[in-house]
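Example for tutorial group B:
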């Protein structure tokens, strides 16, 4: 898949056998799988190679679902495999990981379809849902990951209108757990900190001593 200076290098193939469907990743990309877990949702990007012909790529209108009873629509308003660049995007769940194989639910791609890329699904970015904090307001560079939790703060530049905003109205932090996203107000953030401190105080003394020693070594 090479068009000028833009190249798509397959990282694997879709495989189907009886009722099983899996993603067979090439050995050279095995390290790229690290961090994926069973139960994760991913965005799967495929190259519909059977539609990669000059004739099919020049078609700009199709009958949806390949049914001539449906009125013609522009390909960008459909999920047709016939399009200028025959890319297909799926949101799928990983049910099992075995080596370089990611087992998923059935999809309508043919056996042997090249895999262009895999990305973790993020509800905030990939799902049509209104967010109280606009993307440009987030301080992405200061985001932190703790276990499976991703914390993204709001930018902290001074805004004059904040003087009129109460803590329970000011959305301060985006929290992502896997693909799920929620937003905490400043008031909720303070309550969360208080709860976490309470939980920390209840840890066994031996565990807290080990944590302190570990923190001392890390500094």
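The residue assignment follows.
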């Amino acid at each position: 898949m090479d068009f000028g200076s833009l190249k798509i290098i397959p990282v694997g193939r879709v495989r189907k056998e009886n009722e099983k469907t899996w993603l067979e990743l090439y050995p050279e990309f095995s390290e790229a799988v690290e961090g994926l877990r069973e139960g994760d949702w991913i965005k799967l990007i495929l190259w519909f190679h059977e539609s990669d012909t000059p004739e099919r790529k020049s078609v700009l209108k199709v009958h949806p679902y390949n049914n001539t009873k449906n009125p013609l629509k522009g390909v960008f308003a459909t999920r047709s495999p016939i399009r200028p660049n025959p890319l297909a995007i799926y949101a799928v769940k990983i049910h099992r990981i075995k080596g370089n194989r990611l087992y998923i639910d059935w999809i309508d791609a043919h056996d042997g379809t090249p895999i262009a890329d895999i990305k973790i699904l993020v509800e905030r970015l990939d799902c049509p849902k209104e967010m109280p904090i606009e993307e440009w307001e987030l301080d992405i560079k200061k985001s932190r990951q703790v276990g499976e939790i991703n914390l993204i703060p709001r930018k902290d530049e001074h805004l004059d209108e904040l003087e009129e905003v109460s803590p329970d109205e000011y959305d301060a932090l985006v929290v992502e757990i896997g693909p799920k996203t929620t937003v905490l107000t400043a008031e909720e953030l303070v309550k969360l900190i208080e709860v976490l401190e309470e939980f920390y105080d209840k840890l066994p003394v031996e565990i807290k001593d080990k944590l302190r020693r570990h923190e001392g070594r890390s500094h």
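The helical segments are 54-57, 123-126, 186-201, 205-218. Compare this with the pattern of hydrophobic and polar residues in the output above.
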